[in-house]
Amino acid sequence: MAPLRVLVLLPLLLHSVASISFFLPIRTRKCLKEEIHKDVLVTGEYDISEQANSKVNLKITDSSGHILYSKEDATKGKFAFTTEDYDMFEVCFESKSQMALGRVPDQLINLNMKHGVEAKNYEEIAKVEKLKPLEVELRRLEDLSESIVNDFAYMKKREEEMRDTNESTNTRVLYFSVFSMCCLIGLATWQVFYLRRFFKAKKLIE
Q: Transmembrane residues, as ranges (predicted)?
């Protein structure tokens, strides 16, 4: 019974949904970062409270600075993109105001991001492919299983890369240690012969 419970809870733990709300002070910039795998669909929906004489610009970029989505004077909308590589993605909200003086209330920002299986609209898929409810659920479970397999494959790949790095580092440390010992032995031998010649020159030893 316990393994069954694990299988039932596993999909719940693997939901890729990020919903967040926060206040953005005037003339400030806040960014959210998240690592996402390759070839993953990312969708999002945002809702920004309106404020007179101020606006909020939204920009989504990857680690290389490529703009995936940009919206000036954003208030409410949706965005979607597919990742081309495993990368760190940044969602930035920047507040701008034309008011020079005076206290301006912070703007409330609601952001709901989904990626992977949760980002797919299975209702639309069902309409296009004319699928029955059970077939839609099977499709969703199939996509979820594929996502889990891909995650495990990625973790295995990362583990192999880390192991190779550790082995390479250990080998380099070993070679460096041997080289250092040889240098120390050579330096000690040279010191012995140098001191011996010095003492002989001073006629302190025979």
A: 173-195
